[in-house]
Amino acid sequence: MTAVLLQEDAAKRRRRRKNTKHAVVIAVLCAWSVFALAPIVWILLMSLKQPGDIASYPPKFFFSPTLANYAEVLSGPEFLTPFANSLIVTLGALALTLVIGLPTAYSLARFAFKGRENIAFGILSLRFAPELLIILPLYLIFQNVNLHDTYLGLILAYQLVTLPMLVWMLRSFIEDLPKELEEAVAIDGGTRWTAFRHVLFRLMAPGLGASLMLSFIWAWNNYTLPLVLSGRNTEVITTGIQQYISFQSIAWGPMAAATVISLIPGILFALLSLRWIVDGLTAGTVKG
Amino acid sequence: MKHKASLPYLLALPGLAVLVAILYPFLTGTWWSFTSYRLNRGDPEFNWGENFVTLFSSGEGLHAIGVTLTYAAVVVVIECLLGISLAMLLNYGRYGNFFRLLIVLPMLLPPVIAALMWKVMLTENGIANWILESLGGQRLLWLNGQDSALWSVILIDVWIFTPFVVLLAQAGLKSIPAELREASAVDGAGPIRNFVSVTLPMLTPILIVIVTFRGVDSLKMFDIIYTTTKGGPIDATTNLHVMAYLDGIRNLNFGMAMAALVVLWVLCYLISHFLLKARRKEATS
User: Of A59, A107, A220, which is closest to B130 when you measure between CB atoms?
Assistant: First the structure.
């Protein structure tokens, strides 16, 4: 009798200990989440404040919100032009990267040929070079050939950021797909091109989506390239947002509003498909 | 499937073309690093590596190298410790997917803009100082302090890039078969012993990848430092990458700027080369 009770007691204790453990784990995760979210929430609050509330100390957590900052930011070209430029340059760079990167990745994944690993690592090494090493010389070269401060120039230069990772991600996604499927098409009389279009391309669609999404984020987030290579005509969002603090007094409200708007793509991608992002990230880094 | 011998090269041609095209600015820049090239004073003239001597013998040069190495070492160690711990907690606890979403967010934002957000919070009358004062502490100078600036920038780096370590470490942890841990638990290993003898060795390949990416990226950190401090106060946060920008774009001294970049590139190259080699060895063994 007592033995049974003791056993039950021990089981209960073990369960309780497990529950405490879970509670501690969740508490730690909550704490880090607060740390991770607090700056985002704070800038969001700031973007809804009037100038008087922003400057007040101690900081105000309760205030009458206003959308004036957003109205100001969205009504003038100071923000909308860089935002549009960012879209043009990022999407343009992505399109070019896809045209260059997809055949390259396919070749690196599906064929064994001399120099394959050298080419693959040559492309990856671009990812590991300090950006300015290429961009400072490019700055003078672009000025000589009239590519400085043009969309085309930026799109070409952005290949430095987008191409290496896209090639590595796609290569590993293609390697994960069985070769036999394409070979089956060949047995049925199809060419490599039909096999690619009808079989491989469809199977790799999720991987392609993940790769493009991550490349979009990296291109959108880039700062060094436009800092050196863009000018008044092609200012993008990461360089454009600095104008709010380079004035004599900092325009806190509009800056906060502009910041919040430029965070949207990243947050949107995370909410829609974090799984894809994780897949792409591991494909581009861990494998290979 | 049969194919012509030239097909793989033909398909890889666009990628190769980009590589070759990038060689041009790369070689041009490397040549400049051996010249006394100033943008406003005529053509580059070979100066027998004088720039490199200056870099390694002047106070500023050595200071920048020191900042670069300190920043990278501190950031990699802190982010690996925090990232792996968080990944293990995410895999252990409930609501893992929900917490992961919250934890990952900072990594997806533009680093410059994240840095700007922190700059706002770390001003003299900012919320960080208010929290410190409410807790009974003293105000800090944060980014404006000669001694605190580097640590403040490191804090921002940790905020942005710890998620990167979390995501990769999670993938690595998932690839460890549960049987292994169970077997060692049956053999009487406690949680710490289990981590050291099972988890850590199995995690090594992915740890190498993490250190490669975070190591190189923090050696060449530019965005966060330049947006928050522009290398200051004075030169407290001037690493090689920021120094090269200031030398080149502000002082138009392209010779010195390129010398700093070549040194930085060699550092990044060595790290990525050795680590990727170790990784391949690890993968084949």
Answer: A59
